[in-house]
## 1
Amino acid sequence: MDLVRVENRGTGLALLTIANPPVNALAAPVRAGLAEAIVAVGRDPSVRAIVIAADGKAFVAGADIGEFGKPPVSPSLPDLLQIIEQSEKPVVAAIQGVAFGGGFELALACHGRIVGPDARLGLPEIKLGLIPGAGGTQRLPRLLGAAPAFAMMLDGKPVNAFKALALGLVDQLADGDLLAAANAYALELADAGQSPQVRTRVGRFTTEDRADFEAAAAEAIRRSPKLPNVAALAEAVRAAMDLPFDEGLAVERARFLSLVDDPTSKALRHVFFAERAAGRIPGIGKEVKARPIAQAAVIGAGTMGGGIAMSFAEAGIPVTLIEVEEAALQTGLGRVRANYEASCKRGSLSVEDMKKRLGLIRGAVGLEAAADADVIVEAAFEEMGVKAGIFGALDRIAKPGAILATNTSYLDVNAIAACTSRPADVVGLHFFSPANIMRLLEVVRGAETAPDVLVTSFELGRKLGKLPVIVGVCHGFVGNRILAKRSQAAERLLLAGALPHEIDAAVTDFGFRMGPFAMADLAGQDIGWRVRKATGARAPVSDALCEMGRFGQKTGRGFYLYPEGARKGTRDPETEALIARLSEEQGIARRSFTPDEIIARLFYPMVNEGAKILEEGIAARASDIDLIWINGYNWPAFTGGPMHWADGIGFDRIVAALDEIATETGEDSLRPTALLRRLAESGEVLANVVAL
Ligand code: 3HC
């Protein structure tokens, strides 16, 4: 199949159409096709002007990300863009939909650019741990100025057609027939007579712009010390100001190529493909269609229920928030309103949008109010008896075909489904707190959950702006089950000799925004304590702190001290003495741990649990576990998630370390699972492991 079609329109115009579905990525055959076509039509005396267009919804989504890290195939994208730029016949890009990354760079190398109203232009390479590698860092600053171009490449967000026109990124916005407008414009440029000038080669930088850029660059580098592409971006933009165009291009290219091999970019590319893979639910094909969702209900107006209701409202879905009695309902509705008012005050929400959202949230007392809902999300108290009562009643009340979802964090979704006569309609929708903000949604597949209920849950999740990931039924599902392993490991480390601030520092140095103890203090330790008491689990240090009423920030004391409402804790000799006493009581000789040892002891047991989860088929792929931890628990994306990170370490090392810790602590549950031992022997990686 030809990925680039060439048509001589007979009016002096050649139309080159990229046809590489689904998003016209600039894979090697596309680059070769375009290069050949430009040369060929350049030689054709009947052609005076050239238009590059593309089939489908997107113009070009960029370079082919799947090619990165593989041996290069010529022509490279910079080579192709040079051929386009040097064409003696004007080349105009006709852009519909997205022109991202290399796609936007392709357009920037053309002599003219025309967009349709649905166009979105951007350089999102930063999100892949890269920088633009085909002239973006040189051409965009020449069009926009260094500081605005740096800002646009740093956040990676696209601009729409209207903004692109206003900024001068494009020459025209075509309301009607995009191709006709592009053809006319290309011929107009040809008629102008001179050889076409590429505007994006020339630029002037003011002293003020340079100063703004330098300030923004210094701040960005300070904020992202672990991301080498941020410093590389600054360097490339600086080269755009200081060096002749071709030398600047060479700086950009060298930085780009070294970033492609950097572990942070490999990890972020892994995350990109992981997000796409997560959309595929094992055993369910495209023929399964979603059920329509026009009306939702949420049961329980606590923090979680309120947040879920806000999510529905933000997606434009009317939702009824249900409580058992009026006072609790009013408190819940009041909390929702206060949240929105705070956003308005911060300026992140307009009063008009707040009114719209509040208008979509109706409060009601009694489960009967869920009768009209197409999806009902139960977010009531985390106790089986409570859930059983609710689902039994919903079975009577809900309309046929309604999806009955539970937001349980730990309980058995199959047991909840068994409280109804329609277990096929029951699913777990595990939101994370705050539910209107956090992106992760664990979709818990019960033994009898119907395929179309899962497809609907995914579609709904995406509509709510979430990243849905499929998980199976077990205590804590994927995220919390692995979290429990980290919590146990953290307690073990405390008793063995590390102090809370040392463990937290190792974890934040690794890239988390917060360490486990600062997090526990922020969330409130009483929640975990209650769960442990209910399940008979023990956490010696945390339990002792809770018994002393030290629940964390809200009581001014937890693992750390928070004098006068401070948000950042300080070390507390009382906590440290308590830990030392507990070590002594357990006969443990305390010793010190390096940050690397702390990380290994905290995270290897999590990797082991992840492998068990894969063995049991609770997660569909290792990359799903990565997404869950990145989006629900703040695991740093630039390491790719726990399983990708482990792949990079090698399982021979991880297995040996786990065996050593298990022997030292006498905890057989820490022994490496069979899957890890197999990987250690074969030298394979988890990325290739698909659960059955
Ligand atoms: N390379 C390779 N594959 C790509 C791709 C790319 N640049 N962009 C999208 N795809 C693939 C996806 O993996 C997916 O494949 P699958 O169906 O097999 O899972 C398919 O195209 C459809 O993608 P989405 O599911 O994401 O479709 P959406 O319609 O939701 O989104 C999109 C489309 C907005 C284009 C989104 O895919 C996207 O943002 N893509 C990445 C854009 C990007 O980062 N571009 C920069 C690339 S790096 C670069 O250009 C370097 C240059 O400077 C040298």
Note: The chain has four domains: 4-194+202-260, 296-471, 499-505+512-585, 595-688.
## 2
Amino acid sequence: MANAIEIIGNARKESRAILTEMESKQLLASLGIPTTQVELATSREEAVAFSKTIGYPCVLKVSSHDISHKSDAGGVKVGLKNDEEVAAAYDAIKASCLTKFPQAVIEGVTVQTMAKPGLEVIVGMATDPQFGPVLMFGLGGVWVEVLKDVSFKIAPLTKSDAAMAVREIRASKLLDGFRGSEPVDTAALEDILLRISDFVTTTPEVKEMDLNPIFAYPNGAIAVDARVILGE
Ligand code: ADP
Ligand code: MG
């Protein structure tokens, strides 16, 4: 498995500052952060073949350096249950993305394991000119935009910083279980924050990271979308 330095080096060779979702997830996996399995298909037949090995239901997503908001472009299809649905989704993703972004170069379509539903949260990292790397934790999905309910901590984070980042959001009650749902594994979320903190502290060329969303479960958590941006 490629390590973070190799993945970053590959992007640099191609003069790219933004890692693809697949590269970003490979990087997360190398840091010990759980993500979905991802394979890049460059034909409909290949997408079907990958789906068979990954297993149903699966998810298909556009992979293009020119498209960063994949669902806005019609580039995400979840819950695909069989070969026919995968083949149709492959064609639909390409058609929709090329209609919305006629100039886009599409490298292919990724085939991914479909993560079971969980509480959507996000972990982010941005570089502040004064404070350096700053980590963010918040609720994911629509809530991040509507409520702006996020907390920030300056890296490197201590264990108690990570615990506070998770606790400090206003809607932290949702993490404790809501209307009969089980509490989520906050230790797994703190672990992700600490691994990202360690990584960005030792890798200053990473300028931004976005794990959006992470699905949080009573046991564990998994990043289903990821983006890493390099600086100078
Ligand atoms: P975007 O580029 O639009 O942010 P995402 O990769 O985040 O695209 O996908 C959009 C949504 O689809 C996610 O917020 C999540 O709810 C769902 N999703 C994406 N990938 C998966 C997956 N592998 N398993 C389950 N749900 C997924
Ligand atoms: Mg996303």
Note: Residues 36, 59, 61, 69-71, 76, 78, 112, 114-115, 213, 224-225 surround adenosine-5'-diphosphate (ligand 1) (CB under 6 Å).
